[in-house]
Amino acid sequence: MMNHLWNLPAISLLSLRDFLAPLLPKAPITEPVAVFLVILAIMLVAPLLFEHLRLPGIVGLILAGVIVGPHGFGLLERDGTIVLLGTVGSLFLMFMAGLETSLDDLKYNADKAVIFGLATFSVPMALGAAAMTLLGYPFLAAVLVASCFASHTLLALPIVSKLGIMRSQSVTTTLGGTLITNVLTLLVLAVVVKAHQGNLTLGFWLFLIPSLGFYTFATLWGVPRLGRWFFRRFGHDEGAEFTFVVATLFVVSYFAKLIEIEPIIGAFLAGIAITQLIPQLSPLMNRIQFIGNTLFVPFFLISVGMLVNPLILFQEPRSLLVSAVMVGVAIVAKLLPAWGSGKLFRFDFSSIMVMFGLSVAQAASTLAAITVAYKINLVDQLTVNGTIAMILVTCIASPWITDRWGQQIKSSSTRQTQARKLPQTQARYRILVPVANPSTEDNLLQLALILVKRTNGTLLPLHVLTDTHVPISAEAKLQQERLLAMAETIAHAAVVNVEPIGRVDDSIDKGILRTAQERNANLIICGWKGYSTYRDNFFGSVIDNVARRTSVPMLITRFVQPINSTQRVFLAISEIETMAPDFQQTLALARALATELKATLQILQVLSNSRLSDLPEISDLATDVPVQRVRGHFVNQVSRILETDDLLILTHNAHPELLGAPTLGVAPEAIARQHPDISIIVVYFPSGYKAME
What angle do CA 583, 589, 595 make, to 5 degrees? Predict the structure, then answer.
């Protein structure tokens, strides 16, 4: 079906080019460099101009496509390259919608998504079929055109992503509803085409329904497992990670085509399946969004505009009637489900209008359906004309409506977030990360970037060369430069502030402590091998010496798996640690990591002497976070519950230890030795530490 998506029939009408022929080139621009230059100029100028006029930038891209396209000034021809990149753009658009969609949010809003999806399918189907029948269309043609009203393209999705309201209930409901209505619409298309051709047999149903169910299960179950295996093996190669993600998008989309459903549905499912492996604030997510929003999605919007002929409405009087009916039905048929569902869900007016704005745009699926129908002579040229007019109006209205009322949701959400925010989360992190080993540097930096980006803070990668009263070798200096350059590159890819620090000092631990004081660091993240030797316990390792003298908290980490493969953030605490003044900061850290890693959060409280009923309740905890309370030996209880792909978080407050005992305490080392395949973070607070205000 995607082969026909962009190949609408040529319409023999006068265009703007015919009126301005003396002022324009005699033929469209075909030289590759010049074509790409024109496209890049549109991508740069059109959004800036329209945003200056307080209109969504994507409207400018669509209208620019109209102007330079074959039905405008004719500067560009809608050739195979534009078609290819436009198709890639539509897939990227739906893929990024899936990436922004939380499975937990979809599950939580599943009932709303199903209700809205069925409503935004059935209402347009009923109104569209009735309207087209009154215009004299036969039954099958009326049903097929009605299915065009039922489908929609999430054209305004970049707007809600930019506004930061992707996880609002109204947007999540619309995303789930889009999946439902587009699948049902394309099913109607397949049934109508088979019925028109006389091929609607039992074999068709026996193939479509099982294959669709198996395809969905294989995507949502298989892709995450394959991705987790790939990231474990090749997670150190950033280029390989990006290529794997893009390849997954096109493989899943292609298999959707093989079972005769629209590839954009496959792209959306691929995004949902792989999103749990890509932290929201990671460099990989930033690269995907940057390339998609900057290059491919604008190509899609421009290619949609190039399909539109503004003079199409004046071909003949009946064309105006058909176009007016189709535009009116498309708007009313999408407004009614959004209004009714929103009132049922008790959404405010802004949320209802965002649902309407997202669901009113007609583009990819509509073009696919009407193209197939025209090629088998089920609809005529007037229907194609009306469809183009409907696409033009809805593609302009959708981003404007979404931006207009999405701003209000953003303002309301910002006020609520600020009202809930704890004092300690308002401070900006300045995180010092000593880097020494290229094989472990990536996970340490990924953890630091998650925390830095949440607070718009600064990353301080540090490499210390030891002054042994002997000239430092050129190889050591070169290694220092390489490590810091790599850290700086990763930070820039995640778009965070970074201050790389190369230092020569008496020892590594003294270099870390002095740098933390000089650069006003408020958190230190360092790697840990998971155990200490007797020599370390008596004379102190680098971590021991830093922990004994630091005045700021430390995250002492052992990552044996890529951080983005985490499925569960597991916070294990004793009864004493629950009552510690620093516990709320540890809880905030665990919650933040679970959110950004798209993992579940689970808490285990262990006590030794008290009764279970005497355990204090954990305050400021969401009701959906499971808390398990047990009695027994701390290490044994934690070890019993640990699972593969867990990220275990332990706490340790500085207090005197027995001579020769590990500085971090006995429990972290015992668990690390028993579970060499589990990643661990020990949250270490120095004596007398006061949380950031």
Answer: 135
Q: Which residues pair with 603 in a beta bridge?
A: 571, 627
Query: Does one domain contain both 323 and 259?
Result: yes
Q: Which residues pair with 556 in a beta bridge?
A: 526, 682
- Within this chain, do residues 173 and 187 fall inside the same structural domain, yes or no? yes
Question: What backbone torsions phi and psi does residue 255 show, to the nearest 5 degrees?
Answer: -65, -30
CA torsion sign for 205, 210, 211, 217 is positive
Within-domain flag for 570: yes
CB 607 within 8 A of CB 574: yes
Question: How many residues does this entry show for the chain?
Answer: 693
Residue listed under structure tokens 């937990």: 104
Buried b (16+ CB within 10 A) or exposed e, 630-644: beeebbebbeeebee
The burial of 82, by beta-carbon neighbours within 10 Å (0-12 exposed, 13-18 middle, 19 or more buried), is given as buried
CATH code of the domain covering residue 457: 3.40.50.620
**Whether residues 330 and 187 fall in one domain:** yes
Q: Which domain holds residue 582?
A: 557-693
Q: How many domains does the chain have?
A: 3
Structure tokens at 279: 């932290």
Mean pLDDT, range 209-234, rounded to an integer = 86
Q: How far apart are CA 46 and CA 56, in angstroms?
A: 10
Quote the CA–CA distance of 37 and 27 in Å, as a whole number.
17
Biggest distance spanned by C-alpha atoms of the chain: 96
Q: What is the reported pLDDT for 122?
A: 92
Is the confidence at residue 236, as pLDDT, over 70? no
What's the CA gap between 96 and 83, in Å, rounded?
A: 20
Is residue 139 predicted with pLDDT exceeding 80?
yes
The per-residue pLDDT for 632 is 80
- Inter-residue contact 192 to 144 (CB < 8 Å): yes
In a domain, 204, yes or no: yes
Same domain, yes or no: 402 and 281: yes
Contact 96, 267 (CB under 8 A): no
**pLDDT in the model for residue 662:** 59
CATH number of the domain to which 379 belongs: 1.20.1530.20
Decide: 271 and 99 in contact? Cβ < 8 Å.
yes
Query: What value, to the nearest 5°, has the Cα angle with vertex 56 and ends 50 and 61?
Result: 65
Cβ neighbours for 359, distance < 8 A, ≥ 6 positions apart: 120, 152, 174, 177, 178, 334, 337, 338
Q: Are 337 and 363 members of one domain?
A: yes
Tell me the residue type at 321.
L
**Cβ neighbours for 19, distance < 8 A, ≥ 6 positions apart:** none
Q: Name which residue leads in pLDDT, 368 or 567.
A: 567
Which of helix, strand or coil describes residue 155?
coil
In a shared domain, residues 616 and 478:
no
SS3 458: strand
Burial of 659 per CB tally in 10 Å (0-12, 13-18, 19+): exposed
Contact 464, 524 (CB under 8 A): no
Q: If we measure between CA atoms, which residue out of 232, 83, 98, 294 comes closest to residue 178?
A: 98
Note the pLDDT of residue 425. Answer: 42
Last residue of a domain, one of 506, 527, 548: 527
DSSP 8-state code for residue 70: T
The confidence band for 18, taking pLDDT boundaries of 50, 70 and 90, is low
79 in any annotated domain: no
